[in-house]
Amino acid sequence: MNSGELFWIGVGAVLSIAILSYLIEDNFLFRIASHIFVGLTAGYLVVLLINEIIWPLLIQPILMGNGYGRLWMGIPFVLIVLLILSQFPRFKGFSSYPLAFITGVGAAVVIGGALLGTLLPQSFAVVDIFDPSGWDSGSNMLWLTIAEAVIMLLGVIGTLSYFHFGRKRNLLNERSLSERPLVFEACGKVGQVFIGIALGAVFAGVFSTTLTALIDRILAITEFIETLLAGGL
Amino acid sequence: MALLICPVCGAENDLTAERCHQCNASLVDLEPLNSLGQENGDGLPSPEEDLPGLLNALKNGEANHPVIKQEEENLSHTSEESDESDIEEDAPEWLLRIRQRAQEEKDALGPITRKITAAEASLQDDNQESQRQNFESWLRQIQEGGQEGEIDMDGDFADEAEMPEWLQKIRQSRETTTDSEHDGTSDGQDPSIQMPDWLGTRAVEPIDGKPTENESGVEGDHGLTEETIQVTTESAADEIPQESSQSDSGLLSPIKPVLSISPEEERHADHFLATIAAENLPKQSQDKTKKNQSRMLRVIFNLVLMMVMVLLALWGSNRNPTGHALQTHNAAVISWTENLPSRATILVVMDYQPGFYSELSLIANPILRNVVTSDRDFYVLSSVPAGQLLFNRMIDKLGLETAISTQDLGYYPIAAYGAFGLGGKSTTDWGIAHMPQSEKGLPVENYDGIMILADSIMGSRAWVEQLSALMPNNDIYLFLTAQAGPMLLPYWESGQVSGMVSGISEAAGIENALAQGSAVADRWRMYQVGIWAMLAVLAASPFLRPENQGRK
Q1: Record: contact B298-A57, CB cut-off 8 A
Q2: Which of A220, B124, B210, B434 is the one with CA 20 to 30 A from B98?
Q3: What are the pLDDT digits (tens) for B521-552?
């Protein structure tokens, strides 16, 4: 290990200790380390955006393109200028055009992906699991496949019922405005169990991931100390 | 003496008269009537009948008596009708139509109007409650004045000669009846100024049966002491100008403010007093001590945990990893690496932050060691700023002897846009004429595999949604942190994802199956210690919380 590598490992170890000092309480070392990370990230992001997006995707085509090309690239350029103008109170209203464009396109992309990539395939998967042709009839675990399918169906119905907030419209009964239909209420209770299990699994995953990061930092500090003790310089 | 009253002019005639001496109207078949004062012999009705209907009802203790109800309704209706009639007169025609429709159709009212109506109803209830309290207070004032002898029943008639004749008759009749009925029970007070017993009793009891302030003033369930209430009442009374209280007298003397609070308000007051009591200095020092103890406990626990992990890392690295079962979605990834052609094209999507590098490198490295060779082409697309740097570092850590072919496809700040751009180009061949092409453009080709390395649910789901819909012929393999894995598993079940590895637990299984050493297994042992320690803390946390230490 050369001195350059050891230096950066040392910087990483010191910053890790500064961050871990938050275990005691909020302190100067923690704030310094946080500011360093935020500043580095912001600076790196600016350079990256210029290098990866603004120059190759906007400036370069304008400078090196032909007449029609420059005309096409004028559209995003105008939108960018309008967005920059929002920093001046007098021209604040101009920013609504590029923001509306971004929001509209973003919504179209996300909704299309959710529909074609999640809603329809997941619905088909729930239905397909009940197809007997997909079952292994010779397996001793056939009942397990069927049980899994039933549980999955229960989970889907229960979860959808839990998020059903409709009310039956009945002018003669005022209570109908404040109460869900009994079927949805009962299925919603079942859905609550599935949602609880899913959120519990997510929490366990978050905990696991943070613990893995902590282990990595402990190992980095240990490696640095080990190298120093072994005369790494 | 019996008389005949003329039905036409109302004149009194003798019983024997056949025609009225005033108007000459016929008095045949008329029923004779006794003259005024014949009932009791003194020309006045009995004292019981002399009382108004409201007081009669109060005397009989009938809170639900129709007279009381009617009086209460009259109080509320009078104010309501006067207000409503004024509003109705001032309201324009369109508003009247809306109100009429609102009365006919319940759905015509929107949620805001319903809330306003409910608020108005609540306000009316409050007003009625306030009127009831004023009435109760007035009765109490009468009772107090009667007991203290402050009520001057003579009122402004200091002189007997100034008193009207009708009032003298009433008082004379009262003297005769009360002397006969309540002889010896007046405690020596003048019967004319003494309040009747039934009224005094009624004044002490509130109409709705709630205890009066004097009854509830004793420290009881509500927690407010008698001293607290008295102080509040006195302080409120002190705010009334002395001149006005001295100038008025008799029944219409100013009503002193009465503390009338509900149990809920008393509970709020208790909380408020408790909050104030918790702000004293000894308590603060106690809290500080507890805080320091909690902090020390936290630091000691974490230091012990770290020390145990370090010890495991230093002395536990030579054990053989065992017991990691291979999941079906993990086996699919291994199968893909084994069947990958030698000159394959692989797209790597980097969608994780640098903080998760350690976990994702542990997860992806066993696979990358099999996949990354010098004759394969790698395209790297990032939706995080440091994506390309993280990929380069990951490849460097593999320790390959030969260089590999990689192409940076650029950074896309929003994952869904990058995925849509990549997938859209592969499925459609439309384009804009003369649109300049960038050096960072996305390639139009099929890949032998798409590896998505992600740390979050949202980011990885955006990639899977777009790519599985727009590039269905490409196999997608997920390498996820443990926090993103559970929510992406349904995509494996539905067949949209060809394989996945999530968390170091599954990575240890793959490492074991591929016989690639014990780097992940060492971390797994440290991870298990951390998990058990955290479970212990979670289980013990209800008993370690400072606010629970003082509980029995």
Answers
A1: no
A2: B124
A3: 878 888 888 888 888 878 877 776 655 555 44
**B499 forms bridges with which residues in the sheet?**
B477
Q: Rg of chain B over CA atoms, in angstroms?
A: 47
Cα B404 off chain centre by: 61
Q: What is the pTM of this model?
A: 0.60
Contact B213, B259 (CB under 8 A): yes
Using one digit for the tens of pLDDT, what is the confidence trace for A168-200? 666 666 555 567 788 888 999 999 999 999 999
List B residues 268-297 in contact with A (Cβ-Cβ < 8 A).
Answer: 295
Domain ranges of chain A: 130-233
Q: Any chain A CB within 8 A of the CB of B506? A: no
Which one of A113, A171, A208 has the shortest CB-CB distance to B482?
A: A208
Q: Is B531:B333 a contact under the CB 8 Å cutoff?
A: no
Predicted ipTM?
A: 0.86
Cβ pair A56:B439 closer than 8 A: yes
Question: Could you count the other beta carbons within 10 Å of the beta carbon of residue B515?
Answer: 7
Q: What is the pLDDT of residues A52-86, one digit of tens each?
A: 888 888 888 888 877 777 888 888 889 999 999 88
Q: Do A201 and B481 touch (CB under 8 A)?
A: no
Chain A residues with CB-CB distance to B355 below 8 A: 213
Phi, psi dihedrals of residue A177, rounded to the nearest 5°: -75, -25
Q: How far is B88 from B82, CA to CA, in rounded Å?
A: 10
Which H or E run includes B479? strand B476-480
Paired tokens of A211:
């613990």
